[in-house]
């Protein structure tokens, strides 16, 4: 098992390289949390990514759709 912990830079690189599907409204990327988890589980063979479990908990579902995360923003 790898001890690499995925970072925001890993996520942004995966989106930029087309390895992770994301929708964009021009300023924010929308990434399906389950696709993100599948991507990192496959790439790093990790049994779980605990930060996703925290984000997807019921306490956070009232503020946004629990399957979509705003992960990367950019401005001009």
Automatic annotation (TrEMBL):
<protein>
    <submittedName>
        <fullName>Uncharacterized protein</fullName>
    </submittedName>
</protein>
């Amino acid at each position: 098992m790898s001890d690499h912990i995925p970072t925001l830079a890993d996520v942004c690189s995966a989106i930029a390289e087309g390895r992770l599907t994301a929708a964009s409204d021009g300023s924010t990327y929308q990434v399906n949390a389950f696709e993100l988890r599948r991507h990192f589980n496959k790439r790093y063979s990790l049994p779980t990514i605990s930060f996703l479990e925290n984000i997807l908990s019921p306490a956070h579902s009232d503020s946004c759709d629990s399957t979509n995360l705003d992960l990367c923003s950019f401005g001009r």
